[in-house]
Amino acid sequence: MRSFRPIPYAVTALVLAGSLTGVAGCASDSGSTGSSVSSATGTVKRLEVTITGTTVTPAPAQVELPVGSTLELVVTSDHDDELHAHGFDQEATLKAGVPTTLRLTAKEPGRYEVETHEPALTLLTVAVR
Amino acid sequence: MTGRESLAGWSAALPAHGVGSRGDLPLPFAALVVAAGAALLISFVAIGFLWREPRLRESDGLLLPGWLARVLDSRWLRLAAQVLAVVLTLWTLFALVFGPDSALNPVPHVVYVWFWVGLAFASMLLGPVWRVINPVRMLHAGVLRLARVSPDLAVLPYRWGLWPAALGLGTFTWVELVAEENTSLGFLRLLIASFFALSLLGAAVFGRTWFDYADPFEAWSRLLGLLAPLGRRDDGRWVLRTPLHGVNTLRGQRGLVATVAVMLGGTAYDGFSANLGWATFVQSSPLPSSLLRTVTLIGFFGLVALTLWLASAVSVRLAGEPLRQSVSFVSDMAPSLIPIAGGYVIAHYWSLWVYQGQVTWQLLSDPLGIGVDWLGTAGLVPADALIQPTLVATIQAVSIVIGHLLGVLAAHERAITVLPHRAAIIGQVPLMVVMILYTVGGLTILFTP
């Protein structure tokens, strides 16, 4: 039987420990900035999105939404469609040319897609933190 | 990558799954910088300071106490696991045949969360578990036993190595990430029925060797299972060992490079395809979106295989050997990408696994979607303690960095084993460059919205 060789294990452990503490430190930094943002709890953001064929205006982007605040999303499409906000479990029927409003209140941190189904278009993502 | 457009949108974050509507927040910039820096540092330290003679022996490892080894080897433990697997399979087939074609049906969650992702996590923890509880393997063995013929019955010799597994894994990745309607009941019925039929046909012709090599999910479980801390040393006794020891037991074989390329490329595409720039490009392109996605997914597979082979070609030239050696060298080095693939799997699927894995319990309790609660888990509220953004970001960055570290160490061990002594150090540099690209690429995919 071979003897135990400590050097590779020691190197592994050392580098691991270093990277772990480094990354954990950084991640918790960002966590603390996240909580300072959440002082904006209860605020309402408003966003208007227009769909022409397969073109989404403004171009799909990520909307930041602190936990507890609300996004008022007004969608106008040039065709009949279905609107679906994943994770908020909200759906609405879009009538051609008629603005439709969804009120999305942020609860669970994460990233959620808002999309239509006919055709399948991503309108935006909501980053809840 | 397919071209300038997708490069411009080289950004992304979450898996766009048919199951689960929640994705992970982009990785914080600081975590990206620290993790990428750690990966670079590890790589350079490795070149200069690592061991010069092969060190990993198949006889290494910390022996498990006798009673624990006896439990692991006991027929009863295996039987219990097999019974559970059969019950879950039958329960799922019941929902597949009689359940509703709606979000209430548990089958998509069982297939894409418990089976695909859960199997990866279980294998990385315990080893190649699918081999023990694969219901199709059991069905095949059962039929042969009933017919009173040898379990080794085969019509033709098997000789394609892992190629069918690579093809199968590529197809399943396409099903998971590209196919439309991949959570609809009709689609899943076709998928599962054809998988059972194909597996049984393969096993009938080639015998149970089919499961050892050609079955995509056995390969998925076996390759990721090499990373498990639990394993058997060369005399068959149970030991605790490092993931490096497991990876180092894998020898180059036919189709291994393709299988690893599919594992790594598929997970990378999963993250990439969720980025908004890519989504905008696909939905505003005049080309059919499923065609664009399919071509890009195959492009990701090809990119991994190509970069790996290029690195190997440079390595054998640096070592002063003929270029045709790169074919066997790339196969020798492919196992060292398995830790990187494992790191990607953890980073991409952690939150899906811990959150949607709990949601699966809710759905399983009511397989017919008629409002019953047969398992008492219908009212389960998924705990979110393990998907807090800070924790998830830390797990993602750490698992990718650890995957990189283990990949570099495994490649180093292989290089000094197979290359001539004086060329071993310089010979592993090209592969290390490729690993740095994968790691920084993987982190960037997680960082960009």
From TrEMBL, chain A:
Top-rank taxon, per record: Bacteria
Keyword tRNA-binding appears in the UniProt entry: no
Keywords assigned by UniProt, alphabetized: Signal
Signal peptide: 1-24
UniProt name for this protein: EfeO-type cupredoxin-like domain-containing protein
Gene source species: Humibacillus xanthopallidus
Automatic annotation (TrEMBL), chain B:
Taxonomy, superkingdom: Bacteria
Spans through the membrane: 28-51, 79-99, 111-133, 153-175, 187-206, 255-274, 294-316, 337-355, 391-411, 423-447
Alphabetical keyword list: Membrane, Transmembrane, Transmembrane helix
Tagged with keyword Glycosyltransferase: no
Name by which UniProt lists this protein: Fenitrothion hydrolase
